Amino acid sequence: MKILACHNYYRSTSGEDLVFRQDLEILRQNAVDVREFKRENSSVDALGAVRKAMLVPNAVYSRGSAREIRETITSDKPDVAIVQNVLPLISPSAYHILSKFRIPIVQLVYNYRLICPNAILYTEGAICERCVKGNYVHAVVHKCYRGSRWASALYATSLGLHRHLGKAREVITAYVTPDRFLKGKLIEGGYPGERIFPLLNPFDVSKYSPRFDSKGYLVYFGRIVREKGIFTLLSAVRGLPDVRLIVVGGGEAEAEARRRTAEYGLPNVEFVGPRYGDELIRILRDAMAVVVPTEWYDNSPLVVHQAFSLGKPVIASRIDGIPEIISDGVDGLLFEPGDVDDLAAKISVLCGNNALRDKLARAARKKAETEFTSQRRFEGLMSVLQFAIGHPIT
Known about the structure:
Strand order of the largest sheet: 2-1-3-4-7-8
Helix content: 40-55%
Strand content: 15-25%
Distance between the termini: 21 Å
Structural class: alpha/beta
Mean pLDDT: 91
Number of domains: 2
Number of helices: 16
Largest sheet: 6 strands, parallel
CATH architecture of the largest domain: 3-Layer(aba) Sandwich
Shape: globular
Low-confidence stretches: 47-54
């Protein structure tokens, strides 16, 4: 099997970039022939204002990407294509060319871009599903993409074309989502449920050694943005002065989070900035537990996989696909998203009960050993690829 894998990498490395790279690594480790076609948003940074403006129509249809993909298909003759993100530099032109050459397309779906111009179903401080059915005018009205009506219009137009191609010409053969929740949202948006396959994120538990004891602190790891629930978490630990919290990451709400921490008088909260690789693993391994207080539809966060693999229970919001991974009271604790008192209560329970914490930690690692393996991902992905080849769109 020969695969053409297409992805537009983000300016700052995202979870989507990481899982795409992991998929390529897993396929190649199993001797699958994979050719990567990529674009990187970081390449735009060096361009002047005029050249950046010239990229605008390319976000709707990039003739350059179309030409290069056509050349790649002609020379490599792939059996199937894997596509993740195409915006803004690859553009929906990828689908047009692949379908023209009758290459089956497996779409990896790790956000809500297919049904939401800003990709997160969250705007103006709350979950938003106005565009799910296909009316993207809402995105422009509410300036959903980076608070810009112009940028929102660009993405709404590109998504509108994408949706038109996908619906009218039925060019995408199969979809892979990280959980059943996202599959359900795509179905609400008019996508064919019989061609959508939930698979857990690619992950290799064998790279992680568990540690069931700790240095007695909790960890928040991720972007510091409102929708991730950071302010709910800070409010929860405000009433728990004996609970130490380490905040790992950065983001647009970091300054406000630091200001509020000072305002609340929280010497038990420490911001350490972004951490990666071995340094991040060390922080997680020494933790008592990881907290994921998300307040948007945050699909299958990779930090849950990392925490479980290291033998750390997770306290998380009962939202979207998270309850599909975390079994409440078995390998973690769930609380109602945005509920400060509920979160504080769950933190108190976990911190005050050594036996419970140990039980959850060991169950978390056991689940990781069973479900978070590269072999499981490889088998699932190959099954979908073979389905796509065997069930072409006609």
